[in-house]
Write a structure and sequence with these properties.
With 426 residues, the chain is α/β, with parallel strands linked by helices. The chain folds into two domains: 148 residues, no CATH class; 247 residues, TIM Barrel, CATH 3.20.20.70. The chain contains twelve helices and 17 strands. The protein has an eight-stranded antiparallel sheet. A seven-stranded parallel sheet has the order 9-12-13-14-15-16-17. Strands 10-11 form a two-stranded antiparallel sheet. Bound molecules: iron/sulfur cluster. Iron/sulfur cluster (SF4) binds next to loops. The site of iron/sulfur cluster (SF4) has 11 residues, from loops.
């Protein structure tokens, strides 16, 4: 699919204005002001600002009124049809904590330590409840035909239709992505999900995102079916995507051939080389076992692909008593070996970044924090820019000052970039 070189077009009436063919930034950036990404259209009324993707589906909204919390904050609708409120986080140091300038506030329980309760705000709820009614009531007479067609098309994408589309997305792979890798923050979580391996190896006791599925690898035929259906589902808006997520919790468990073939097929089918967004990204999770078994040749084959690849490994703790407490059936020794291997790959392969997760909680023994410090400070000779460590609070809906304080302490001593892992679904 070629990006049409269409010029922006504007229609203005006394009640509202429409801008078609808006061109936002074509590169994901980490900046402290709101950036619009990709190709989209905008509808502005006296009170609201709405943005729509190339399939005429609402993708962002905000109020222009005084009751809006902050003019630089906005609501985003995800492909899974969740509304996410992006806040600056006030003075709480969002960038230091998350590596991003804006904090996604979610409507469902998660492990966030930051943020307030924006979904209790009437101005936010009003948009979520009424955006479609607001655009349906705009007087549409006497508009040029292309604007009138566009308005008709966005009105057709009702909340019910959008929910159905989200369900279609989940049906393609058989289930919803219940957790995205922390590294997906680099593309604002705008990923196309393909499941290549269901379930996970360990079924750890502490984990709130696991499912009951046994580990099983999808066939090539199944994956190719997913790719074709995803292409149809993302439809015209696919030019705004440049990132793949291979699911579910341990895609690294699939054979190197299957991983590489899936990436190649998806790259061709989704025409990532022609994406409006610069660069291509690949995200996947790996278990300690599958990571330790992965051969050097796999990374040698992955590195030259036209993707920046992020593989996220759940290590959780470098302390045996904590691993046992968490019900994670791996050993401290395996964690040490996986961490060492991650450093080696991060040093040698410029297009691959292995990132590691560890848990945090005020109930964990001191030995957990001591061992973690030994790993992320003492075994790393000098500060490195690559190989993020993500610290994941264990409890959901339980912001804790003590845990946040412990996080900043660990971050200040770590020799690797260290951030909080905010668990998000697609
Ligand atoms: S932490 Fe990972 S391996 Fe353990 S149960 Fe959760 S998804 Fe599975």
């Amino acid at each position: 699919m070629k990006i049409k070189n269409t010029l922006p077009q504007t229609f203005e009436s006394a009640d509202f204005s429409i801008e078609l063919n808006c061109r936002g930034s074509n590169e994901y950036e980490k900046v402290s002001f709101p950036v619009k990404y990709g190709l989209f259209s905008r509808l502005k009324t006296r009170d609201y600002l709405f943005e729509f993707n190339l399939n005429h589906e609402i993708r962002q909204a905000k109020s222009r009124g005084k009751n809006w919390l902050d003019p630089s904050e906005w609501l985003k609708r995800t492909m899974g049809n969740d509304w996410v409120y992006y806040s600056t986080g006030g003075y709480s140091g969002v960038y230091e904590a998350l590596g991003e300038y804006y904090l996604p506030n979610l409507v469902y329980p998660t492990n966030s330590l930051l943020g307030g309760k924006p979904f209790k705000e009437e101005a936010i709820n009003e948009i979520i409840r009424n955006w479609h009614q607001i655009i349906s009531q705009l007087p549409a007479a006497n508009m040029p035909e292309n604007f009138s067609r566009w308005l008709h098309a966005v009105r057709e994408k009702t909340p019910e239709i959008l929910q159905e589309k989200a369900q279609n997305l989940f049906d393609i792979s058989g289930s919803r992505v219940t957790v995205m890798p922390p590294d997906a923050r680099h593309v604002d979580y705008n990923i196309i999900p393909i499941t290549i391996c269901d379930g996970c190896l360990y079924k750890c006791r502490f984990c709130k995102v696991k499912n009951k599925k046994e580990v099983s690898i999808r066939s090539r035929q199944d994956i190719s079916g997913q790719v074709s259906r995803l292409k149809r589902l993302y439809n015209k808006d696919i030019v705004n995507f440049n990132a793949l997520f291979l699911g579910e919790h341990d895609a690294l468990n699939a054979s190197p051939e299957l991983i590489l073939k899936t990436v190649q097929d998806a790259w061709e089918a989704f025409e990532f080389q022609a994406s409006y967004m610069k660069g291509n990204y690949l995200f996947l999770f790996g278990s300690v076992d599958s990571f330790l078994s992965a051969k050097r040749t796999f990374f040698e084959d992955l590195n030259p692909l036209p993707f920046q690849t992020f593989i996220n490994i759940g290590l959780e703790s470098y302390d045996q008593s904590t691993l046992d407490f968490l019900g994670k059936p791996i050993t401290e020794k395996q964690v040490g070996l996986a961490f060492e291997k991650a450093q080696m790959i991060n040093d040698r392969f410029s297009n691959i970044e292995i990132t590691c997760n560890f848990v945090m909680d005020d109930t964990l023994p001191d030995s957990h924090y001591k061992a973690l410090m030994a790993l992320i400070r003492e075994t790393v000779a000098r500060p490195k820019p690559k190989g993020c460590i993500y610290l994941s609070p264990l409890k959901f809906d339980h912001p804790s000052r003590q845990v946040l304080y412990d996080f900043y302490k660990l971050k200040s001593l770590s020799r690797l970039p260290t951030f909080l892992y905010l668990i998000q679904r697609l």
